[in-house]
Amino acid sequence: SLAVSPDGQLYVTDQPETGIQVRVLTGETERQIVFDETVLAQPWLAIDPAGRLLALISDGRLLVLEGEAFMLLHEFNLPGAVINGFVVTRHGDYLIATENQGVLIVNTAGEVRGQLGRVVLNSPLPGEFVAPRGVTVDGNGTVYVVDSDGTFGAVTAMSSRVETGRVGSSALLPGAAVRGTLNAQTVQQEWTLDGRAGQWLTISAVDDNGGLLDVALRLIGPDGQEVAFNDDQAGTDLPNATDAQLADYLLAQDGVYTVRVEQVNGSGSYRLGISQEQVFDLSAAAVTRLSGTLQAVLPVERWTFTGQAGQVLTFTMQASGGTLDSVLRLLDADGNVLTENDDAADTALGKDAQLVQVALPADGTYTLEARRFDGDGGYTLVIVATS
């Protein structure tokens, strides 16, 4: 095991003939600290918020380095647990990865107060583990767990501070859907968005219960003033008429915006997603490839490029997985639709969309809208310059 202190000292366990020890490396110097004879196997190391070196022994003892010796700090009651690693959160709690009991949460009194995720025998879903082999945590409280049973391997990220009824960070990122729950006890939930002036967004809130939850969306600017509101979507992008959407919205100022999802009627879970405009350059090699993903709560992605009058381009939107049935539109700088397609004329493309031999009418900015007619999944945009 190994750990690095805030001041750059590297601690590494070792097991030479003289006994189990920790080697301390500082720059070009090195010293050894030997454990007593009760430590029968190399321990797991971690640094606590105060910068102290901790060593977790397989029998549940937690030692702390004081000067040139290890002293007993806690004795954890972990009957039958096969320890594979541990880490200390910024709040001082201990997360212990075990072979057979998942990731245990132990408080500063040495008491097991919970468990991260759920242990399953095989085929783990997000939030489930088979045999955690190691654990670490970043400065934001996100926990990373290495899981492997010999044939399956994965790294799972989890939040250690999730609110009840909310899945995902409260800080929204374009292209990353989150989930919340509204009911009699929680009639609204707020999420934040770090926005910039001139940024184009589409914000969507979709019922996750087959139409049983009616939601509204309210966008509040950095100055605390409401800038946009929608109860029922104006278009047909989303699965239910009572889903809410702020479509093609242009942010007016830099700062942190608040996205508020409100209960209008019913109760249950919803998904919330933000799509944003992405800028790209046409490839000098005549073929440009882009990729993205669409789903019910992220029904559109916009791709903006600079074109020249007389350029002739063919745009093909090909599904790369899932059940996506796509729609492709080309817009000019004023937002006018120049051409669009649902299913390509080339039957070999099936439900993929294609705009064939489009001559750009003027120099300027153009936008490709990759839209979802039905289904969800990844897609690839292929743009071929034919003249």
Q: What average pLDDT do the residues reach?
A: 88
Shape: elongated
Which range best describes the helical content: under 10%, 10-25%, 25-40%, 40-55%, 55-70% or over 70%? under 10%
Please, how many helices?
Answer: 0
Uncertain runs are: none
- Oligomeric form: single chain
In whole angstroms, how far apart are the ends? 60 Å
Count all strands and give the number: 34
> What percent strand?
over 45%
Main structural class? mainly beta
Compute the CA-based radius of gyration.
Answer: 27 Å
State the major sheet. Answer: 9 strands, mixed
Summarize the topology.
Layout: E1 2-4, E2 10-14, E3 21-26, E4 29-34, E5 44-47, E6 53-56, E7 61-66, E8 69-75, E9 83-88, E10 94-98, E11 102-106, E12 112-116, E13 118-119, E14 128-129, E15 132-137, E16 142-148, E17 153-159, E18 166-167, E19 178-182, E20 188-195, E21 200-207, E22 214-220, E23 226-230, E24 244-250, E25 255-265, E26 268-279, E27 287-294, E28 300-307, E29 312-319, E30 325-331, E31 337-341, E32 353-359, E33 364-374, E34 377-385
Parallel strand pairs: 13-14, 26-28
Antiparallel strand pairs: 1-2, 2-3, 3-4, 5-6, 6-7, 7-8, 9-10, 10-11, 11-12, 15-16, 16-17, 18-19, 19-26, 20-25, 21-24, 21-26, 22-23, 22-25, 27-34, 28-33, 29-32, 29-34, 30-31, 30-33
